[in-house]
Amino acid sequence: MPDTPPPEIARTLTLRVAVTMRRERAPNAWEDWRHTPHDVALDDGTLGHTPRTLRDDGRERLTLHPGLPLLLHADEGEGYHLNLSSGAPVWFVMWRGAEDDPSEAAPEFVTLSYNEAGRLLDAQERVDNVPLPAELVQMLQAFTSAHYRPEPKQRRRPASFQRPGDRR
């Protein structure tokens, strides 16, 4: 019988996060603007619902984007495991620039799954990462441990030990 997760850990966990985006004006001769996620934090609902500027000195602007959902799904366990086992777990932030104004950009999606981030990159989306704080690494580890069971490794016999008709 396969191991089943304890009933007290839900198969789906929904959190809210706030992403702080950093915008640099003319960071080099080839770009007018550069956008990057600067920070991600849990949002307890006190940060509001609309983006707001935290700091703008004309050269650099930090804008807080609260209320983004972060969904953890039991079937993404391998992706969470890969993120945790990387040695430096991260938030993966997918963001888009405004079509009509290249000086604006906003986060669209946040995940902790390495596989989900890879699928977004395969779809030509912009995905950057931000270090994950230690207390959230522990939470992600608990969720992953409850739901992820690696596939057992299958030993493959070398071709030289197989009958000629069974070799590939």
Contiguous helical run count: 3
Radius of gyration: 21 Å
Give the mean pLDDT. 89
Overall geometric form: extended
Number of strands: 7
Query: Which regions are unreliable across 5 or more consecutive residues at pLDDT < 50?
Result: 1-5
Q: How far is it from the N-terminal to the C-terminal residue, by CA?
A: 33 Å
- Largest sheet: spatial strand order: 2-1-4-3
Number of discrete domains: 1
Could you state the order of secondary-structure elements as H and E?
EEEEHEEHEH
Task: Kindly name the structural category.
Answer: alpha+beta
Organism: Ideonella aquatica
Region (Disordered): 145-168
Protein name: DUF3305 domain-containing protein
InterPro entries: DUF3305
Describe the structure.
The chain is α+β, with helices and mostly antiparallel strands. It has one domain. Helices cover 18% and strands 41% of the residues. The chain has helices spanning 77-84, 114-122, 134-147, and strands at 12-28, 31-42, 52-56, 60-73, 90-97, 105-111, 126-131. It has a 4-stranded antiparallel beta sheet with strand order 2-1-4-3, with no helix packed on it. Strands 6-5-7 form a 3-stranded antiparallel beta sheet, with helices on one face. A hairpin with a 3-residue loop joins strand 3 and strand 4 (60-73). Helix 1 packs across helix 3 (134-147). It is extended and about 70 Å long. Residues 1-5 have low confidence and may be disordered. It comes from Ideonella aquatica. This is DUF3305 domain-containing protein. Residues 145-168 are annotated as: Disordered. InterPro entries: DUF3305 (IPR021736). It holds the Pfam family DUF3305.
